[in-house]
Amino acid sequence: MPNRFRGTGVALVTPFHKDGSIDFKRLGQLVDRMIDNGINYLVALGTTGESVALSSDEKMAVLGFVVDQAEGRVPVILGLGGNNTNDILNSFSHYDFDGVEAILSVSPYYNKPSQKGLYQHYKMIANRSPVPVILYNVPGRTSSNISAETTLRLAYDIDNIIGIKEASGDLEQCMDIIKNKPEGFLVISGDDALTLPMIAIGADGVISVVANIFPEDFSGLVNSALRGNMKLAREYHYKLIDIIENLFVEGNPAGVKAAMEIMNNSEANLRLPLTPVSRATHNKLSRLIADAAKVSPSEKVS
User: Fold this and answer.
1) What distance in Å separates the CA atoms of residue 226 and residue 16, rounded to the nearest whole number?
2) Annotated catalytic residue, options 95, 119, 122, 165
3) Catalytic one of 119, 136, 236, 239
4) What is the pTM of this model?
């Protein structure tokens, strides 16, 4: 199972019409474009998919649609987490897990649990989940960090926890996990800008935002790095790094939706409290995307 999630995953955006309703036509086109351009697996209902702004019925509709559109061509992961453990446990009965191969569960936010609380939270989720669990550590959003010690304890104690998406930005913490983890436990970059150095220290790939707009190039970066071709990986990295940095200056997914609009892939509609990026950021992304289109790596990754 862990090898199914090695490489490039993409945290899918949820396209909206101007009236705020879900644009399933654009979502279907996005899924096909990701698969056709080398993405290894899809993540539905993550942060980038504005899951917190969707109703329960909409979440189930999006998940079912993504699974159906993927048609088994690549694995699908469901984003399912929160700060109410019992609510997450109860939600397992609401989703159809047919076609879902794992869940990505963000650590509890706002209530800032202790490391003991984090351990018990994930233990309960993993023991109840019908599919394997990937931890998601993103202190910049949750205001609490899953320590390397807690991650490793979960990795060794609970068979149904198969990996972690690490977005702490702390490479020393990531190295601690990678050095001491059990065999087969995945460490996945949760930060596009750090994916190359993360793979260099032993990570297994990425769950990406920028891949929504540059799936072929970013999967090329990941694949070349995993194969040890760091020269080519750096070419992809430096082609995209300025775009990556500017996708997040006014928040995610506002930046990536603006980029998708620039590239005529979707409209930049968001649900409140998120709002579109400023004209200055939109214009800068337009220039950076145009510049990136002129850059061709010295070779292609097969």
Assistant:
1) 35
2) 165
3) 136
4) 0.96
